[in-house]
Amino acid sequence: MEEILRLALKKADAADVFYSESDGVLARNSLDRVEACKSSRESGYGLRVVHKGRTGFAYFTRVEDAKRAVDEAVRTAKLLPKENLALPSPSRPKPVKSFDRRVTKVDEDSAVDMLLAMVNGASEKALPVKGEVSAGTSTHRIINSEGVDLESKETTFFAYEEAKKGKSLSYDEHSSSRITSTQPIGFKAGEWASLGNGAKPVAFKGRICLSVEALSSFFASAVLEQFNGESARRKKTTWANSLNKRVMHPRINVVEDPHIPWAQPTAAFDDEGRPTRKKSLIRNGVLKKFLYDSRTAALSKAKPTGSGFRPSYSVAPETSVTNIVLNPSEKCNAFANSGLFVRELMGFHNMNSVTGDFALTITLGFTLKNGEFDKPVRGSILRGNIFSALKDNPMFDKKALTRDWFTSPRMCFDAEVVK
Question: Is the per-residue pLDDT at 175 higher than 80?
Answer without folding.
Answer: yes
